[in-house]
Design goal:
This protein has 156 residues and is an alpha+beta fold. It is built from three helices and ten strands; from the N terminus they run H-H-H-E-E-E-E-E-E-E-E-E-E. It has an eight-stranded antiparallel barrel with strand order 1-3-4-6-7-8-9-10.
Length: 156
């Protein structure tokens, strides 16, 4: 009986440790620690043919886990524009991939190593994202010179 109670206590601590809100102590930690948890999509902009940024109508979630895994899902609103860049990330208005992640604080990048994806050509690829953090927001941009987009996430 005590073993069962101990297992439940350990499970509760593990779950709470992964899903708890960021505290001021977390904000003083490493960038990797700051990324942990779930993020909701705030805005996504891509560069149009005329060079101006176009705001996309989307919703989504990004998750970074303590054990180094990540997942992203983004859905276009009905009637929204399709992929227009050099890399195809979505199919039928939906983008989804998962894998592992690694942070390079010196280069200000987070690399998503894709292990599974709706668009199968992404599997095995390293998607390098330039990051910046501002309060509860995470701003990601592609590191590729031929991709011009900015996506803003907010920590739940």
């Amino acid at each position: 009986m005590i073993k069962k109670g101990l297992r439940l206590a350990i499970l509760a601590v593990a779950v709470l440790g992964l899903s708890r809100p960021m505290s001021s102590a977390d904000q003083a930690g490493s960038v990797r620690d700051k990324l942990l948890g779930a993020w909701r999509l705030v805005s996504d902009e891509v560069q149009g043919p005329d060079g101006k940024m176009i705001k996309l109508n989307q919703t989504g979630v990004l998750i970074y886990s303590r054990d180094g895994h990540m997942a992203v899902e983004i859905m276009d609103a009905p009637g929204a524009a399709a992929d227009t860049g050099p890399v195809k990330y979505s199919e039928g208005g939906f983008e989804a991939y998962f894998g592992s992640f690694k942070v390079d604080e010196t280069a200000h990048t987070v690399t998503h190593h894709v292990e599974g994806a709706l668009v199968r050509s992404l599997i095995g690829k390293d998607l390098i994202r330039v990051y910046s953090l501002s309060g509860r927001q995470l701003i990601l941009k592609s590191s590729r010179s031929d991709e011009h987009w900015t996506i803003v996430w907010e920590h739940y």
